[in-house]
Structure formats: C-alpha cells, structure tokens
Protein 1
Amino acid sequence: MSKTIAVIPGDGIGPEIMNATLRVLDALDCGLSYEFVEAGMVALEKHGDLLPQATLDSIAKHKVALKGPLTTPVGGGFTSINVTLRRHFDLYANVRPAISFPGTKARFENIDIITVRENTEGAYLSEGQTLSEDGETAISMVRNTRKGSSRIVRYAFELAVKKGRKKVTAVHKANIIKTASGLFLNVAREIAKEYPQIEFNEMIVDNACMQLVMKPEQFDVIVTTNLFGDILSDLCAGLVGGLGLAPGDNIGAEAAIFEAVHGSAPDIAGKGIANPCALLLAAADMLDHLGMVDKGDKMRNAIRDTMTHDRDSVTPDLGGKGSTSSFGDAIVKRVRAA
Ligand SMILES: NC(=O)c1ccc[n+]([C@@H]2O[C@H](COP(=O)([O-])OP(=O)(O)OC[C@H]3O[C@@H](n4cnc5c(N)ncnc54)[C@H](O)[C@@H]3O)[C@@H](O)[C@H]2O)c1
C-alpha cells in the first residue's frame, strides 16, 4: 500500500521522538510517505501563526496525521492548538489505550483498558464562561447533545466489536448532573441494546476512579464524556506507569490525528533522553486505522520485547540508561528481525 500522511514533529522533545518513530515506521516497510508540516511554537516563530493554514490543508488532504506534542504559550490569549484541531476536524472520539508493559514501575501488570472519551462537547469545553464584575461568581455551561453522545457510544461499541473486546462501561454522573450526564447515560443504555454480544455496565465516575485503582481488571472499554474522559484516561495511564506509554488517537469522520498524550517536556528537550514509546504506540494505532493491523501489532510486540530484553537501551524514565536513539535503534532491530 502507498499512502501519504501529514507529519507534525512539534515542539520540545517532539522532533526527537518523531525521528525515532519514523525510523521504526520505515523499518516496518508499510509504504508510508510523509508530508512534513508545522504547528506550535516552531510555526509561530517561522510563520507568525501557531497553526498555519498549510498544516490544516495537509491534514485535510491526507486525512491522517501523526503529531508530536505542541507547546501552547502561556498567557496572551492563545487557545490550545489541540483543542482547535479537534474542533476544526470534528475529531469526536479520543481513544486512549492503557496497556501494561514489562519493566515499568507500574502497580499492576495486566492492564488493558481503552478509554473512549467524547472530544467535542461537555464540561471540558467550558462554553459560555463568565466571571461576575466583583469576581465572586464564575459560570460555565455544560452542553451535551444526543448526536454527540450517540456517536461516541456507538464508536466505543464498534471498537469493542472490531478489537474482540468483551465489555463496555459507561462512566457518568447522572445521579447529580441529571440533564447533561443523564442524556449521555440514556443514550448509552439505548445503544447498548444494539450490541447484545458485548457486556454493558454503567458506573458513577467517583466510584469508577476508586474501582480503577482497586480492581482495574474489571474494565475493558470505558466510554465517557469529555471531562471525565480527560481525567480517567490519565488515571489509566498512571496504572501502567505514566504518560511515557500513553498514546492518544483523535478520530473523526473526515480525519484522524494520532499523538502522544504527554506534552513537549521542555525540561528534557534536546537532551536525547525522551521516551519515544507513547508516540510509537500512537503510530501503531494509526497503522490499525489504515488497515495495517498486522504491522501495528508487530510494532507493539517489538516495543514489548525491547522493554523486556534490551533493558540497557531504554530511556531513564523507564529505569534504563539509554537514550531516545538507542531505544529507537533497539526497536528497529526487533522489527527487522521479526
Ligand atoms: N498533546 C499535546 O500537544 C500536549 C499535551 C500536554 C501538554 N502539552 C504542552 O506541553 C508543554 C509542557 O507541559 P507539561 O510540562 O505540563 O507536561 P509534559 O507532559 O510535557 O511533561 C510532564 C513531565 O513528564 C516528562 N515527560 C513527558 N513526556 C516524556 C517522555 N516522552 N519521556 C520522558 N519524560 C517525559 C517531562 O520531562 C516532565 O517532567 C506545555 O506547553 C503544554 O501546553 C501539549
């Protein structure tokens, strides 16, 4: 297969982890070519724009993008580029797998949870924010829609079917937030009936947090609204050893952007010690999305084997003495040998 994707190396550690990731993709021989475009501080400095039109055009043209982390400047009224991209391309599903890998400092060993987070509405968007003149009262609106709830719940069930998963848990707060969260829950209950082969259960978000920490093995696919998904998916990343291993897929009907959940890590940028795995795992999800599931699995297996057997090569955040490039080299070697 021959396919071009948009590649945004990003800020901070972005170019370092992107370089390692593209080397592994090339070693997999999946027929991908890359159109490099810019966003974030790099784009602001070069073009005076955090998100140039050429970048939006490239994503629209190729429909698939691999994105490094972007720095959103503090203050100055800048909106998050990630939120802008999600809105612009209506990337309604934020899919965040959390899988245990060997050799991490995680508390659990057999976690395999996918959080499917609604990405375009809900409390996270903080629509209609106001602050009273005396600074005493802040207001922000929560807007959930039947359309938004339906498409995210359906996405979660379809994903469960496609990936052979057994159970979908809808996480909500409908006991208190009766309209907005209640709408989401009612829609989830209705759609669940269309998938009798997948077990369905529902859980209030505070209990879900406790259950995730106490008995994570009961979870398979979680579907939830935007803000709860933001928090729960980081909790799940923590269960498997932190953000260095957490990919985030942003999926819409017309485009999909694959990225690491972590940020541009300015504290370690340029030191050559950033862990490339989160972006690599996002690239593996991208291969699944492009119909190359065997290549995606090959990449995940190579990462797993490297973390098990090539401990010297792994980066310091995983307890190794290696660098971004030694980690990348070891994974490339395993991909080639497989
Ligand atoms: N998706 C994105 O583009 C995205 C996501 C989150 C934050 N950000 C941006 O990133 C910048 C920095 O944010 P932050 O410091 O809060 O979060 P961060 O995720 O960049 O860093 C948090 C901590 O984790 C470490 N870390 C992160 N990724 C790592 C990796 N791959 N390997 C090893 N260690 C890693 C960092 O060194 C740091 O100590 C901010 O400008 C923020 O807006 C971007």
Protein 2
Amino acid sequence: MKPILFKSKLLEIKEINPETKILKFSIPEGFNFTAGQYVIIAFYKEGKRILRSYSIFSAPSEIRFIETYFKIIKGGYSSNYLFNMKIGEEIEMKGPLGIFTIKESTIHKDILMISSGTGFAPFMSIVKDLIGRRFKNRMILIRGFRKEEDLCCEEELKKLSEENKNFEYYNILSQPENGNHRLIGHAQDFLEKLTPKDFKGDFYICGLKDMVFETREKLLSSGISPERIHFERYD
Ligand SMILES: Cc1cc2nc3c(=O)[nH]c(=O)nc-3n(C[C@H](O)[C@H](O)[C@H](O)COP(=O)(O)OP(=O)(O)OC[C@H]3O[C@@H](n4cnc5c(N)ncnc54)[C@H](O)[C@@H]3O)c2cc1C
C-alpha cells in the first residue's frame, strides 16, 4: 500500500533487557505492509521535528498492530523517547516504506539473512511471514549480538526452527558471559562457515553500515553477484 500518515497509540511494552524493548502500536483500519518494510516516527525536540525509521518487527498477518524492536542509543533523542513512552500515549507515524522485502520474483529461492543487533527486526517479520505462507525453500538466519541478554525471541525462533525443517538460525555473540556459548565473534565472521557450499539463494543483510559493508564485501569477493545481495542500513 502507499504510505500514509497516522497517529498510533502504544498498546503494549515488552522489555527484552534494560536497553532494549519491543513496543506494540495500534494501526489505522486498512493499514497493511510487506514483511521487511519500516515506518517513520516523528519526534519533537524543542519545537524541532526529528524523523527516525523503525523496521516493522511483527508479521503482516498480525493485522491489528505493528511492533518495533529497538535499543536505546546513548544520547539519542528518539530511541530514549520511545523507551520512556507509556501505554496509551500517541505518536505520529508514516508508512509503510521500504523495499527490503522478499520479492515475489525470488520467492522460489533459498534465503540467507544476516543481522547485527536490532538489525534482526525485519527478519523476524520476514521469517514469520514466509513460514505463515508455507515457504518451502531453505531459510538461514545468522544474528549477531553482544551478550546472552540481547537474545530476543529465542523461544519463538527455537519453536519455529523445530517445527519447520527448512528454517535454521544461529546466534553469534561478541561478548558472551556464559562460557558455554560456542559461536563467538561478529555475525559476518561466520558467513563463510554457515553458508551451505551449494547455496544458490539470495543474501539479506541488516544492521549498522560497517557490518553491512563488511558483509557485502565478503560476499562480493567470494564471487556472489550483486543482484543476489540485498541490504538495509540503519545508519
Ligand atoms: C530503514 C531503517 C530502519 C531502522 N530500523 C530500526 C529498528 O528496527 N530498530 C532500531 O533500534 N533502530 C532502527 N533504525 C535506526 C533508527 O532510525 C535510529 O537511528 C536509532 O533509533 C537512533 O536514533 P536516536 O535519535 O535515538 O539517535 P541518533 O542521535 O539519531 O543516533 C546516534 C547514532 O547511533 C547509531 N545508531 C543508529 N541506530 C542504531 C542501532 N539500531 N543500534 C546501534 N546504534 C545505532 C548511529 O551511528 C547514529 O549515528 C533504523 C534506521 C533505518 C534507516
């Protein structure tokens, strides 16, 4: 659908850790989106309008609300504002926007998704959407975080991977606190190891620019053509 401007009410707050939350917002009648899209939220600081984008974390089938998944950025106005919102408060949004979606023309292909931090947001929507649509091809998710406490939605992903043999996911931690965690480093460090040798599908990358560019470079230098690489940068 074409993007529209609307007022949205905060319906529910889920705290993932002391710096990260998932917020559930109301949407107007008839609002719909494609998994992987985002909304722009308007904030007002000393009379000045600030616009920030947030990927839609929920799946399109969850039609009565949208969720955002975000982390507080030190000194960042918008993320702190969102973090302190109370249930029932309203905020201005515009959406849906963006083309970081699984194109119908590539829906027959395998997909490998790789994220760092809150860059996982569009992939939660995409994974739930594709599973809901009985996507039969292989779906691999490699998500990088700092510590165990950042591991959002672990139970849900575990259940989805157990119930859907075509979906597998890996958690890479850069600073694990538990000595048992095996995959240590950044998500992109594991790209080569976790990409199946015969992989013919497309790659989707989401996160901050350094990670996005590093991952893209690795893929290009391993011979993957640019048409098979899709990315969304958060900064
Ligand atoms: C298409 C798009 C979708 C986005 N979706 C999300 C989302 O789903 N969840 C989310 O948390 N953010 C998302 N962002 C980033 C978001 O728009 C804001 O930039 C972020 O919340 C910081 O805003 P701020 O005003 O608090 O701080 P600012 O003062 O604007 O940011 C300060 C600095 O923080 C860094 N930064 C920005 N985003 C992040 C981040 N997520 N993690 C770590 N460092 C960051 C950047 O280097 C930035 O320059 C998205 C950005 C884009 C372009």
